[in-house]
Amino acid sequence: MALSFARKAAIAAVAVAAFGGISFGASAIAATSGPTVQPASAPVSVVAERSAPAHQQVPQVVTQVIGKGRVDGHRWSVALEFHRTLPKGYTLPQVSDGTTAPSTSLLCQRMFIGGVRIDHQGGPWADCQPVTGTDDPQTAGGMGLWGSHDKGLSGTRLMVSNPEADVAYGVVSLSDGTRVKATTATVPGTTYRAWAGPIPNGQTITTVDQYDTHHHRLSHDTNWR
User: Fold this and answer.
1) How crowded is the C-beta side of 77, counted as CA atoms within 13 Å?
2) The whole model's pTM is what?
3) How would residue 1 be classed by pLDDT, with cut points 50, 70 and 90?
4) How far apart (Å, rounded) are the C-alpha atoms in residues 10 and 145?
5) How many helices, marked H, and strands, marked E, lie in the chain?
6) For 32-77, what is each residue's pLDDT tens digit?
7) Cα 175 from chain centre
8) Burial tier of 217 (Cβ tally within 10 Å: 0-12, 13-18, 19+)
């Protein structure tokens, strides 16, 4: 289920998910191995795949773990999955004039809470967005609150941001004073990036801030809950 997956596509409590103009159907916020819940502030860790040696064939599917951990007694994880070519069984969506989008690749956001993939009811390509190559600018700037209940407005949730290139990390502040910090991770060989952090059941989001590598605040959002 999704609340939103577009750049600040949140209207107070409810927002429609959109990722670069294409709906992802989101619902929760995810914390990376890197996103850390403070005061127990451990550094965020990112699991990145090694680049294949030059003599090996370039992999057709590359997966980058954005964040993982435990929240409300459940394991959670978020990963970006990049398909260099459109996978078998995937059909490009039609645009307003009835033609199909001229995309060559696919970028999927895989989010799990308690071993269950968010939006799995939508099939294997739910929360996937067609893109062109490894550097499609339409993917940058979105943010969404994801969960399995009430379109991400209740229950255990994950916050996922697909920020601009200058965003190094995000901090989600909760009403009980807890701060969830998550570091941006990038899919190897591409410009597709994200950070993610968990939102415990019953907690309300007060602010979402994003910072660069020099800890300068780049954005300040109070429209999430």
Assistant:
1) 15
2) 0.74
3) low
4) 9
5) 0, 14
6) 445 555 543 443 333 334 444 555 677 899 999 999 999 999 999 9
7) 22
8) exposed
